[in-house]
Design brief:
The complex is a heterodimer of chains A (234) and B (482). Helices cover 41% and strands 22% of the residues of chain A. Chain A has 234 residues and is of the alpha/beta class. In chain A, strand 3, helix 3 and strand 4 form a beta-alpha-beta unit. In chain A, helix 2 packs parallel to helix 3 and helix 3 runs parallel beside helix 4. Helices cover 55% and strands 16% of the residues of chain B. The longest helix of chain B has 66 residues. Chain B has 11 helices and 11 strands. In chain B, a hairpin with a 2-residue loop joins strand 8 and strand 9. In chain B, helix 1 packs antiparallel against helix 5. With 482 residues, chain B is an alpha+beta fold. Classes of the chains: A alpha/beta (234), B alpha+beta (482). At the A-B interface, helix 8 and strand 11 of A face helix 8, strand 5, helix 9 and helix 10 of B.
Chain lengths: 234, 482
């Protein structure tokens, strides 16, 4: 049984989330403040935290920072539409994903499943991953499209690897830049965009109807292709 | 020049070369003519001398007359004492004739001088009246008070041969200031101060200055400047009233807009709420058994209406932010093409009845914009197009680089927007007159405009090549990130 800690100061939202999540077989704990959230993350040891950013006592980003001090549990941020800055700050502080209020329950559940699956320990990353026509062999750094070898530059490959090893996760500009280009980077979104564009082209992904990489304007990118594990999981 | 005639008029009362020449010439001619006839008709020769004095006084003024009178009274006896003279030389008679000649010269000279002075004054008055008339029409152009004073100062410069005009006035508690200055003149010449009066209340002063070496201000100058100043204060008053009338008109329009807004918002908020509440109470009703299909239909309605309400609230919040002046873009290097792609990916499923296509430029330059706000602008424009264009038609989004700006066009094949409504469609809560009940909130274009303006750009409606409507906007890209 998966335990979920719901942190929101609105009783109606807590009740709605509890009802829906319990109906889907989750065990739900709810709290209304940031302090309780940090304590709850330690004592309840949940497998997932749903965190509202607008809490009365602590800033949501601060909660994430404190929780990240002792656990890597997946955190999904619930935020209102306009909190673009808050979203990026929360993601950069260590949140795994965000869902915009008001949200559809099925969307939240899908994000929750993906986040918990990524956090599953002990399961090594499969050396070869298949996404439809695309196959990525991370052990041998080989990429094939329609069983034909695909030539990627080293940077393009590193970018692709960052994506396929974090399926479904929203990767911020800063995170991707540091991972692919190095620690000194973080604001050079133009580089990133150029390479994402090139990568999309080589992978045959249409940005206007993406099946592999989805753009989150002003935030980052998400690898949405259904992998073999994802297919078996749901 | 409006007042320089003063000097010439004064000249008529002074001895000038012209006056002396006329005074000497007229009696000399009379002598030449009178000489042959003097012996036979002495009375005619006297009349001729008299005529010479009168002509001199008329043509040359007082001094010509007097000179002619003196000369005539000395020449007359000479002419008459020519050979064959019948009358004896008579001192008493000569003196008497001289006195008569001089008196005539004096009377005629003074009368003529007076008349010519009157004439000069009349023409000067006429010119001044014309100047004041021009002034009043020039100043009555519906300008704002600041401009009125600036213009006034400028107008005075040349006719009064000024080097500087400085005006300070207080109107409705606002300090107004105007300064006109000629180029090249050395300031510090003669100056005069004129009070600006609104009725009897002084509202400011005007200082007029001529260049060094300029002529001092005459009483005429002073009077004319005062008259001009009265014109200026009258114009100021008109400008102020015009401004008030404009404000009153804006107030009226704002009130009208507010009324429209309340009725619109009330309607738009209540409608989805009514559907949601009806659906939920129906589902909660213990006495009714819904089959699964009915239940699903009710729930779908609730979901759709919730989305609609959410969009409306989002728009209202944006509008409130615009009104509060809080719509500050968080700019970051962004690709316009990428935003278009993201919006199209999201909007295509929501516009299943239309063919949505994109035309992106080959070179994908970055623009410093707020990606979330630009995303919303495009979303609003596409929603609009989807609402107004008939099913099955094409909606096109085109991005192009035009002279230091990125231009985006959203074209549809709907009914288009009449010319006279093309500005109004960007006003909040405005809905096209041609379609009485459209499902939009009337906020989409207003928000789009506010965002584009906040980015230093502009947005407008264009004619579609065939039928339909093109909403175009451009954002300057002087901040292109290399």
């Amino acid at each position: 049984m998966n335990r979920v800690l719901v942190v929101d100061d609105e009783p109606q939202i807590r009740r709605a989330l509890r009802t829906s999540l319990e109906a889907h077989g989750y065990e739900v704990q709810t709290v209304g403040t940031g302090e309780e959230a940090v304590v709850g993350a330690a004592e309840v040891a949940p497998e997932l935290m749903l965190l509202d950013l607008g809490l009365p006592d602590l800033d949501g980003t601060e909660v994430i920072r404190r929780v990240r001090g002792f656990t890597e549990l997946p955190i999904i941020v619930l935020s209102v539409r306009d909190g673009q800055h808050d979203k990026v700050a929360a993601l950069d502080a260590g949140a795994d994903d965000y869902v915009t209020k008001p949200f559809a329950m099925e969307e939240l559940l899908a994000r929750a499943r993906a986040a918990m699956r990524r956090a599953q320990p002990g399961e090594p990353v499969a050396p070869t991953m298949r996404f439809g026509r695309l196959e990525v062999d991370v052990a041998r750094r080989l990429v094939t499209l329609d069983d034909e070898p695909l030539r990627l530059t080293p940077t393009e490959y590193q970018l692709l690897e960052a994506f396929v090893t974090n399926p479904g996760k929203l990767l911020t500009h800063q995170w991707l830049l540091r991972r692919v280009w190095g620690q000194g980077y973080g604001t050079e979104t133009t580089y990133l965009r150029t390479y994402v564009r090139a990568l999309r082209k080589k992978l045959g992904d249409d940005a206007q109807a993406p099946e592999l990489i989805v753009t989150e304007p002003g935030v980052g990118y998400r690898w949405v292709a259904e992998g073999p594990e994802a297919g078996a999981g749901s | 020049m409006l007042t320089r005639d003063d000097e010439e008029n004064e000249g008529t009362a002074r001895i000038t070369t012209r006056a002396v020449v006329i005074g000497l010439l007229a009696p000399t001619i009379a002598t030449v003519v009178a000489y042959p006839i003097a012996p036979t008709r002495p009375e005619i020769s006297i009349a001729l001398f008299m005529l010479a004095v009168v002509i001199a006084a008329v043509a040359g003024g007082l001094w010509s007359g007097l000179i002619a009178g003196i000369l005539a009274s000395t020449l007359r006896p000479v002419v008459l004492s020519a050979p064959d003279l019948r009358f004896a030389f008579d001192d008493v008679e000569d003196v008497a004739t001289g006195v008569v000649f001089l008196s005539v010269a004096l009377v005629v000279g003074l009368l003529v001088g007076q008349a010519s002075e009157d004439r000069a004054r009349a023409s000067r008055r006429e010119r001044q009246a014309r100047f004041l008339g021009t002034l009043s029409t020039t100043l009555h152009t519906g300008e704002v008070p600041d401009r009125v004073l600036d213009e006034f100062a400028e107008i005075l410069m040349e006719p009064f041969a000024l080097s500087k005009v400085e005006i300070e006035a207080t109107l409705d508690g606002t300090d107004l200031r105007a300064l006109a200055r000629s180029n090249g003149d050395i300031p510090g010449g003669p100056r005069t101060t004129v009070r600006l009066l609104a009725g009897d209340v002084p509202i400011g002063t005007m200082i007029a200055e001529r260049p060094v070496g300029g002529r001092p201000f005459s009483r005429d100058d002073q009077l004319l400047l005062e008259a001009a100043a009265r014109q200026a204060t009258a114009a100021l008053d008109r400008a102020r009233l015009d401004a008030r009338a404009r404000i009153a008109q804006i107030d009226a329009e704002t009130n009208q807009l507010r009324a429209a807004m309340f009725s619109s918002v009330t309607h738009d908020l209540r409608t989805p709420l009514a559907s949601i509440k009806a659906g939920v109470t129906s589902l909660l009703d213990a006495g009714v058994q819904h089959d699964p299909e009915q239940e699903r239909e009710l729930l779908t309605t609730i979901l759709e209406e919730t989305d609609r309400l959410n969009r409306l609230v989002g728009n209202l919040l944006d509008l409130a932010r615009i009104r509060a002046g809080a719509l500050t873009p968080t700019r970051q290097p962004t690709s316009m093409g990428e935003i278009v792609e993201v919006v199209l990916a999201r909007m295509r499923p929501r516009l299943p009845d239309h063919v949505v296509s994109a035309q992106l430029p080959g070179d994908d330059l970055d623009v410093e914009v707020d990606p979330v706000q630009l995303d919303q602008v495009l979303t609003n424009l596409l929603e609009n197009a989807g609402r107004h264009a008939p099913k099955g038609t094409e909606i096109e989004v085109a991005v192009a680089w035009v002279r230091g700006a990125v231009q985006v066009r959203v074209s549809d094949h709907g009914p288009g927007i009449p010319l006279e409504e093309r500005d109004r469609v960007f006003e909040a809560f405005y809905r096209g007159s041609s379609i009485p009940e459209t499902p939009g909130s009337g906020l989409g274009l207003a928000i789009a405009k506010a965002v584009i303006v906040a980015h230093g750009g502009r947005i407008w409606i264009e004619d579609a090549p065939e039928r339909g409507c093109v909403v175009a906007f451009e954002i300057p890209v002087d901040e292109v990130v290399a």
